[in-house]
Amino acid sequence: RNMSSAGPEGRKKMRECNGLIDSLVYYIQGAIADHEPNDKATENCVCILHNLSYQLEIELPESYAQSIYMQRRNTSSNDKTPGCFGTRSRKVKEKQQDTPLPEEKSNPRGVESLWHSTLIRIYLSLIAKSTRNYTQEASLGALQNLTAGTGPMPFAVAQTVVQKANGLPSIRTMLHVSHPTVKKTAVSLLRNLSRNTSLQSDIAREVLPDLVSILPESVPASDIVCETTASICYTLYNLTQSSSHNARLLLSADGLPKIITISMNDSNVFSKASRAASVLLYSLWSHTDLHSTYKK
């Protein structure tokens, strides 16, 4: 677990170690099957996999990168787009969003397991069944890592989490836990998921009221609550930017007074949360059909 935090070279060596990832996944599967999701070894295994999934899209070996992204390259050969991993632009993201992964292998091995639907379902199962905060946080964090990029893999993982594995109810529960870093990681995962336009209606229906309910009543004082609040605002921004319907959901959940209060900054430092709330307000005002409702 310590070694998996040793940076890019350490992650590379561990991903390449024959049988290591497979053994970690095998152990966690056994713990879940034996109804023992709270033991320390399971926590360690999940934390290792969490670390090994960090920057996975960028650090993939060339052989995997070619097979996963070849379809994208072929469809965009006439476009002057940057290479597979060298961009984070919105236009490229929108194009890549519609490019699915090649068909999943039925028996993944090694690094292939890290983004496979089997492991995604294991993470969601641990989120639902474990009461150990570090295990919950690592499972959420692994999914956050896997959905953080802009290529086909992150969007395919997002599709699996939301639509194929029905993961939103488990993630929603984590929004209401008392542990601040678990809550922060759950919100960060939802922020990543909400970038996928094809999933926004599902996410808004399932968790938008919950996101509004956990917004603080004023500008948060602590750094971790401030970051969590900013992530909530940016998630709501993603969900409402192109949808009047979702903006109405936010209104009906009484989110507007909270967002206005958070956007008002009394201190000399313009906090992340205040800035994010201001961006969200600006975006909400673009729905001209809601102006009269806003004024009320």
TrEMBL record:
> From start to end residue, where is composition biased (Basic and acidic residues)?
94-107
Q: What InterPro entries would the database entry show?
A: ARM-like (IPR011989), ARM-type_fold (IPR016024), Armadillo (IPR000225), Plakophilin/d_Catenin (IPR028435)
Can you supply a Gene Ontology BP term from the record? heart development
Q: Which UniProt keywords apply?
A: Cell adhesion, Cell junction, Repeat
Give any Gene Ontology cellular component.
Answer: plasma membrane
Q: What is its main location?
A: other
**Disordered: annotated segments:** 72-109
Q: What are the subcellular locations of this protein?
A: Cell junction
SUPFAM superfamilies for this protein: ARM repeat
Q: Which family does it belong to?
A: Belongs to the beta-catenin family.
Family matches, as PANTHER family:
PLAKOPHILIN-2, PLAKOPHILLIN-RELATED
Q: What is this protein called?
A: PKP2 protein
Q: Identify the species of origin.
A: Herpetotheres cachinnans
- The encoding gene is Pkp2
